Amino acid sequence: MEVGLNWAVFVCGGVFVWLMRRVVNWWVYERVLGEKIRWSLPPGDLGWPFIGNMWAFLRAFKSTNPDSFISSFVNSHGRTGLYKALMFGNPSIIVTVPEACKRVLTDDEYFKPGWPSSTLKLIGRKSFIGSITYEEHKRLRRLTAAPVNGHEALSLYMRYIEDNVVLALEKWAGMGQIEVLTELRRLTFRIIMYIFMSSESEQVMEALEREYTTLNYGVRAMAINLPGFAYHKALKARKNLVAIFQSIVDERRERRKNRPKEDMMDALLDVEDENGRRLSDEEIIDVLVMYLNAGHESSGHVTMWAILFLQEHPQVFQKAKAEQEAIVRNRSPTQKGRLSLKEVRQMEYLSKVIDETLRVVTFSFVVFREAKADVNISGYTIPKGWKVLVWFRSVHFDPEIYPKPKEFNPSRWDGLTPKAGTFLPFGAGSRTCPGNDLAKLEISIFLHYFLLNYELERLNPSCRVMYLPHQRPKDNCLGRIRRVS
């Protein structure tokens, strides 16, 4: 009798928990929408009360199979391409198919940036991902994109990038055991610092790079502002970054009075809108926080993965190396061993290697938007005010678009022009990453010299891969860079 009673209590408790899980978030987020919108929402599950789907997300991305998170929606609800969820504290629609991704990223009339408030506190409300107006975004983008894109700008930075790549590889070859990812991040950070600030001391660069490492660990973490948690540490890092940048801005304003414009910092200090308004210190600092972070993290990580993929696929390595050798062999004697932009654009196979690396790694696996009004996509309604998570990983690993998607195969790009919405390493639309040309140039120059003169010996080739905050080997690619004859 007692066993039967305990079993009944257990069953009733389970039913109660299930009902609470289903009802609480429905009551808070869906009940207020009205019957018509409720019935046209995409399928999905808002998860546990208030926590939503974050446990499932973190569990998947801390496992060896991050794609199990989206697979759980597909297995439960079918390949609908849109799913409702509760993510980062907000009711959200996850978008996983090219056509819908393209619409959300390019339709500025109905969608605006929708990053979680926790992320805005870290990156800055006056940055590109913040609460600035569309016109402010266009103005800032116009100002900051020109120095990091286009033929003239890239030609300007090529020598600096090339010199630092050559010196870095020579140095690493003599250091013995290194964390390749850590060293690459330092290299790419030095480059973006040069573009924005021309010259800062080694101490300042090391301090900034250290704080950025801590900041990034908090961007994808749950927003728990308590000691010991990643988000709490990231907030402290943000505070330290702001203090460092404020001192740099103050010192630069004083120096600017009697010197010509030299770098992006000078441009930010001098720019005026049509009404003569200049950027505030907060606006300048938030732009710096965002650009210096984005400008080195992605380049460093993608370069490391490109090296690993090349080493793991000897035929790809040899084909890419042969292309670089041909470029050097066909060089004019007057060129004195320097790369030119024309030569970089002749690296057709290496460009495919980089694109395939960008696809397989998908450095930014998701971006956030917010619906400005009720929007119908693929027969489903995205309610006004709900977040929209454009899930790049699902697109880049769709076997209908990319056969054997987990396989690294640069030759899949032979004669392939991706359809809109199917290849999104830098996003799309008016908010496409403004530094994409610079990033690909950095990666191309590095791989040129690596392929010609070096190889990597990994110490832990079977090291586990981590996926938060970005995909990387747990040991940050511990190994030795060796010079080859």
From TrEMBL:
The chain crosses the membrane at residues 6-28. Keywords: Heme, Iron, Membrane, Metal-binding, Monooxygenase, Oxidoreductase, Transmembrane, Transmembrane helix. GO terms for cellular component: endoplasmic reticulum; membrane. Pathway: Hormone biosynthesis; Plant hormone biosynthesis; gibberellin biosynthesis. Heme binds at residue 433. Its main location: membrane. InterPro entries: Cyt_P450, Cyt_P450_CS, Cyt_P450_E_grp-I, Cyt_P450_sf. It is a single-pass membrane protein. GO terms for biological process: brassinosteroid biosynthetic process; brassinosteroid homeostasis; gibberellin biosynthetic process; sterol metabolic process. GO terms for molecular function: ent-kaurenoic acid monooxygenase activity; heme binding; iron ion binding. Gene3D superfamilies: Cytochrome P450. Its cofactor is heme. It comes from the Eukaryota. The keyword Metal-binding applies. It is found in: Membrane. PROSITE patterns: CYTOCHROME_P450. Catalyzes three successive oxidations of ent-kaurenoic acid giving gibberellin 12 (GA12), a key step in gibberellins (GAs) biosynthesis. GAs, which are involved many processes, including stem elongation, play a central role in plant development. Belongs to the cytochrome P450 family. This is Ent-kaurenoic acid oxidase.
